[in-house]
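ARCHIVE CARD
Drawer: 12
Card no.: 0347
Subject: one protein chain, sequence and derived structure
Cross-reference: see card 0346
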Amino acid sequence: MKTFNSFLGTGWGFPPTFSKDTLQVSMLSDEEDIQSSLEILLSTQQGERVMLHKYGCNLNEMVFEPMTTTFKTYIKDMIQTAILYYEPRIDVKKITLDDSRDAEGVILVMIEYVVRSTNSRYNFVYPFYKNEGTQVKK
């Protein structure tokens, strides 16, 4: 079995995929693992995880809210708090919401962060879809 010696962490990718060649689960390491972790954190509703009831970010509850300055500030704070508690490998520098495609039901959440142990800067863009079935033909 192959061992992974990543100081930033190694974990299963999501969704889990398996390699026919090695007969093992595909693993993610380092910055790729952090990006996957952020995507999972922002996609998870609080209460979904059995052993971590407060894990997640309840973005789906915000689907029908108007995009006011107060609402944007609330979303940024909710994301900042979730990352603070559940992704200790990074320091968030800035969270920006791009609502230019709000009429299409898409809000882009841009997170600028620094990996603590390497002091490397990265960006993560999470597309939050307010309308899941926008391409449905009537």
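Annotation on reverse: The chain is about 25% helix and 30% strand. The helical segments are 30-43, 69-86.
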